[in-house]
Design goal:
Layout: E1 2-5, E2 8-14, E3 17-23, E4 26-30, E5 35-38, E6 45-50, E7 56-63, E8 68-75, E9 79-83, E10 90-98, E11 101-109
Antiparallel strand pairs: 1-4, 2-3, 5-6, 6-9, 7-8, 7-10, 10-11
Length: 110
């Protein structure tokens, strides 16, 4: 996972679905010290653990096509459990935001 500072965000619409792209390469930082996602790969659910009292503005879970599966805002708790049992096997993205920083991590549902 990497946070991108000074990034440019662009929103585009495609068939009623809004996609957000973020570009930029200033101050890319490893965020493994901020959060962990386990297990990965997963069968039905996974846990996002925030470290060291970190809070996030938003966490969005999308399928690989960009459709939003779940969105949570103002995350203060240290652990979030997410259930993907009703969704098909495949790749999903976890997009976390804190201020002007955005991090994306891919997970695999078997």
């Amino acid at each position: 996972i990497a946070f991108i500072q000074n990034a440019t965000t662009k929103e585009i619409m495609n068939g009623g679905t809004k996609f957000t792209t973020t570009t930029g390469n200033d101050n890319i930082t490893n965020t493994s010290e901020w959060l962990t996602i386990s297990p990965n790969p997963l069968i039905s659910d996974f846990v996002i653990q925030l470290k060291n009292g970190i809070s996030l503005d938003e966490i969005t879970i999308t399928n690989i096509n960009g459709s939003i599966i779940e969105k949570r805002i103002n995350i203060q708790q240290n652990e979030l459990k997410v259930d993907l049992s009703q969704y098909p096997s495949g790749n999903y993205l976890i997009i976390s935001k804190k201020g002007d920083k955005v991090a994306t991590q891919q997970i695999v549902k078997q």
